[in-house]
Amino acid sequence: MEHPENNEAYKGLVVNAGIEQPSSVNPYLKRKVKKRQLSVNEFVEGIVKGDVTILSQAVTLVESVRPEHQATAQEVIERCLPYSGNSIRVGISGVPGAGKSTSIDVFGLHVLEKGGKLAVLAIDPSSERSKGSILGDKTRMEQLSVHPKSFIRPSPSAGSLGGVARKTRETIILCEAAGFDKIFVETVGVGQSETAVHSMVDFFLLIQLAGTGDELQGIKRGIMEMADGIVINKADGNNMDKAKLAAAQFRNALHLFPAPDSGWTPRVLTYSGFYNLGVKEIWDMVYEYIDFVKGNGYFEYRRNEQSKYWMYESINEQLRDSFYHNAKIESMLQEKEQQVLKGNLTSFVAAKSLLDTYFEDLK
Ligand code: GDP
């Protein structure tokens, strides 16, 4: 039971009538001290100064579903935009168990040896269901999580994949404004989330494993086509030969794909994240790629294309939100769905009637 003294109306001392009630001396009195939210100016100044606490708070706003938080977040992002863009953004994908966290830990330490600051973000479309993402979880990256120049943030969990991805993209902008010049975006190798990550990074790194004998069948062609580099992890001990064989198979398979627009020929390397073997070569490849595409103009072209993509994604997301949160639509949706399921209405007629109602309501 709640202690009666925790009730604010409770006065510890009873005084006679006519005498002023002294202030409460109850040490258990719960005072709800509401933390004042920072202003847009304070957010922007803090972020640009590289204050990680303020950066974290801003990311929390970006992730919030409350409209007033979203409004502030959008203003902060807009003001941070001029300070953003100066980074290398790398997408890192692989199935669970491929060694993403082990690898990101060593990759991260390696790139930080050259100076700069690293942010590790994540897109995990399953996090909505599992209530919390494991990707980007600090505990999985033991060394990086205590490194003073790193910022690790798990996947935003609310909403559709499009919504989750948008939030991560906005977080990239804030991190860049805070001086993070290397950004890793981690994702699980399941398909759609790769497309989302690919749409916000400069280099897409696919982590693969050897040893199953039919590794090529397991990955979707689309994912391989997106990769700027494929790296076979766990090339250590008895696994070395299998890893080399897998690398050869991947190289052969890549030849069958049309040449990428970047003009870059995707490479296949083997490494061991756990034993820190071959890690330098992977990052030499990434930097070589960046030099290459900066030289031929593709780097800027791809970033512009990504901005365009996100403009349309943003429009789509907001239209969808506005439609599904419309009170009339909310009240009609179930019924129409049932009619379609029972065969009383075709999908198209149901959709048209809902859309007509929506557009009518907007007038
Ligand atoms: P994630 O699910 O993709 O994040 O994978 P983890 O990083 O958690 O790794 C999965 C398992 O593979 C762990 O038991 C790691 O210790 C192991 N592992 C990761 N990298 C290597 C490696 O380079 N060599 C070997 N032998 N094992 C590794």
Automatic annotation (TrEMBL):
Cellular component GO terms, alphabetical: cytoplasm
Gene3D superfamilies in alphabetical order: 1.10.287.130, 1.20.5.170, P-loop containing nucleotide triphosphate hydrolases (3.40.50.300)
GO MF entries: GTP binding; GTPase activity
Domain of life, per lineage: Bacteria
InterPro entries registered for this protein in UniProt: GTPase_ArgK, P-loop_NTPase
Database matches in Pfam families: MeaB
Family the UniProt entry places it in: Belongs to the SIMIBI class G3E GTPase family. ArgK/MeaB subfamily.
Protein name per Swiss-Prot or TrEMBL: Transporter
Organism field: Bacteroides fragilis
